[in-house]
Specification:
Layout (H helix, E strand, L loop, with lengths): L3 H6 L2 H32 L6 H56 L1 E3 L5 E3 L11 H37 L17 H10 L2 H10 L1 H5 L6 H27 L9 H21 L7 E7 L14 E6 L7 E6 L9 H18 L5 E7 L7 H4 L3 H20 L6 E7 L1 H9 L9 E5 L19 E4 L19 E2 L2 E2 L9 E2 L16 H11 L1 H4 L7
Helix pairs in contact: 2-3, 3-4, 6-8, 8-9, 10-14, 12-13
């Protein structure tokens, strides 16, 4: 059991630094792998015979073992230590809150965490025995949170050490889920695998595993970091192929620009994955954008990036952007995701909140494409399955899950929410052109858990259907911001189509409070 003194002296930033140090080991191990390749390459031309073949086998085996360690150990230890730092910081925040409460009540706490009434501070209306017990229970809660985090981290670290002692064996899994399998069934399949089979999949088939809903975020993150490197290599190879021509054809220029934008998007994702500040990022899916063949729209790439581990969080936001979004424009959408998460942390520092940027659909690029519900209908099943995966892998069925759609993304969210079985506690529509229904009752969600806002000067208001008898009729149904739709409408400043995330805008505060759940939603400023 963690003691009061141990928790008070604990240093979460030190554990974050330790996690960062392990993250940097990936580069060192990559250099070691390159060195082994160079050594083997240098020996082969000038050395033949039995000894040469034996040495080559030994070098290949050593390289394989280093490759397995490089693919697993730094990332796993980074995840474990980063998660431990966040959970330890939460426990310390809870403890500090109860220490402040004790001080306000005139109670004292000794070095062992015992709560008592100091006669020198006693007032006629001084603290009661019940108050002292309440503070003592609060301190006990903080210590229990720290103890649980400590035990979990220790267990996971022991598993890594045991696997390393056993030589990190690998073997393929005996079975695989069918395409489109229920995320809960995928979770059960994953839990039934041994560590060797899991490591084999992460290393040898990361592209398949990384996009599978129902797989824990930690495993998807490990797989997708190698997918990210591969996607970058494919884009660079395509770029080099186009530039290798003596004269670059005029029709290749747009493709080169597209590739450069996608590479910039991958760089932004890479930077966030390596960031030293903020919650650790988990890469849950990524597609750099296949080479354009000239017979269809150019891909803008896809990415699903979680800030904080959604499997360990008390509250999880899934943010679905709208028209024009994609990997090539990830920077702005990631900033908006961070802003909501940051406000959640300000309002509820004792709760673990994670925010997911879900850019996993082919968003319309232009207004004429956005006039069709087709992209939203094609994305709805993927969003539904992703949310089911979050619920399946979460540590607590009571975790608060919120899905927020902005602009065309609100149509994606509304389309997904029409079908029963979407495990969501709150739906939020921001700057919406309509969500595919005319009334909140047509969604598979209680009306009190559906929220909406649209600024008075948001250009989306021009998405009204011409000649319709009511200005509340938009391209994709009744305006969810109108009282007649039946959603809970929250206030915001008139800051245009992207101003909802501006510092000081009541809309930003409202979005954060909705994500944090019922205990915070009573303070949301609603429109009168």
């Amino acid at each position: 059991m963690i003691t009061y003194r141990q928790l008070w002296a604990a240093d979460p930033p030190a554990w974050r630094r330790a996690a960062l140090a392990w993250r940097r080991q990936e580069q060192m191990l990559a250099r070691r792998l390159a060195g082994l390749d160079d050594a083997a390459g240098g020996l082969r031309p000038g050395w033949t015979g039995l000894a040469a073949r034996t040495a080559d086998r030994h070098l290949a085996g050593l390289r394989d073992r280093v490759a397995v360690v490089a693919a697993a150990v730094p990332c796993v230890l980074d995840q474990i230590l980063s998660g431990y730092a966040e959970r330890l910081a939460r426990a310390k925040s809870v403890l500090a809150g109860w220490v402040d409460t004790a001080d306000r009540l005139g109670l004292s706490i000794d070095r062992d965490g015992r709560v008592w009434a100091d006669p020198a501070r006693t007032r006629p209306d001084g603290p009661t025995l019940a108050a002292a017990r309440r503070v003592a229970d609060g301190i006990g809660t903080a210590l229990a949170l720290a103890a649980t985090a400590d035990a979990d981290a220790a267990s996971r670290l022991d598993a890594v050490a045991t696997a390393a002692d056993q030589g990190w064996p690998e073997r393929p899994p005996p079975t695989r889920p069918a395409a489109g399998a229920d995320p809960a069934a995928v979770r059960d399949w994953w839990l039934a695998l041994d560590d060797a089979a899991r490591r084999w999949l992460i290393r040898h088939d990361p592209g398949w595993l990384g996009g599978l809903d129902g797989i824990p975020a930690a495993a998807r993150d490990q797989a997708n970091r190698s997918v990210l490197a591969r996607e970058r290599e494919l884009l660079l190879a395509e770029r080099d192929r186009l530039l290798a021509r003596e004269t670059v054809p005029w029709d290749s220029v747009p493709e080169l620009r597209r590739i450069d934008r996608l590479l910039a998007g991958l760089d932004r994702v890479t930077d966030r994955l390596a960031a030293e500040s903020g919650p650790r990022a988990y890469l849950l899916d990524v597609a750099g954008g296949a080479a354009w063949t000239g017979d269809g729209p150019r891909s803008t790439g896809r990415v699903v990036l979680a800030l904080g581990d959604p499997d360990q969080a008390d509250n999880v936001l899934t943010y679905v952007p709208g028209m024009g979004s994609g990997l090539d424009r990830v920077a702005g959408e990631l900033d908006r995701t961070e802003r909501v998460l940051g406000r959640c942390q300000e309002l509820a520092p004792t709760e673990l909140t994670a925010a997911v940027l879900w850019l996993d659909y082919a968003a319309p690029a232009f207004v004429d494409e956005a006039a069709s519900a087709g992209p939203a209908e094609r994305a709805a099943d993927d969003l539904l399955r992703f949310q089911q995966g979050l619920r399946a892998t979460g540590h607590d069925d009571a975790a608060e899950l919120t899905v927020l759609g902005h602009s065309y993304g609100s149509l994606v969210v509304g389309t997904a929410a029409r079908a029963p079985g979407m495990p969501v506690d709150n739906l939020v529509f921001v700057g919406s052109p309509g969500v595919g229904v005319d009334h909140v009752d047509e969604l598979a969600m209680p009306a009190g858990q559906v929220w909406a806002t649209t600024a008075t000067n948001d250009v989306i208001r021009h998405a009204a259907v011409p000649g319709w008898w009511s200005d509340d009729r938009l391209w994709f149904g009744h305006d969810p911001n109108d009282p007649g739709f039946g959603a809970r409408v929250f206030a915001g400043d008139p800051a245009g189509h992207l101003g909802y995330w501006n510092d000081g805008n009541p809309a930003l505060d409202a979005m954060a409070r909705i994500v944090l759940g019922a205990g915070h939603q009573d303070e949301v400023v609603t429109r009168r």
